[in-house]
Amino acid sequence: MTLATVSNHIAVYLDKNLATNQDNSEIYAYGLEILLGAVIKLSIVFLLGWIFNVFGLTLIVLVTYAAFRCFGGGAHMSTYLKCLLLGTTVVVGMGLLSQFNLATHLLAYIATFALVFALFVCYKWVPGDTEKKPISDREVRNRQKRKMAIIIAVWGLIILYLLHHSLNTYALAMILGSISSVFLIAPWGYSLLTTIDKWT
Amino acid sequence: MMKTKLQKLAMSSLAIALMFIAGTGVSPNSWFIAYEPNIPESLKR
Question: CA of A135, closest CA in chain B: separation in Å?
Answer without folding.
Answer: 7
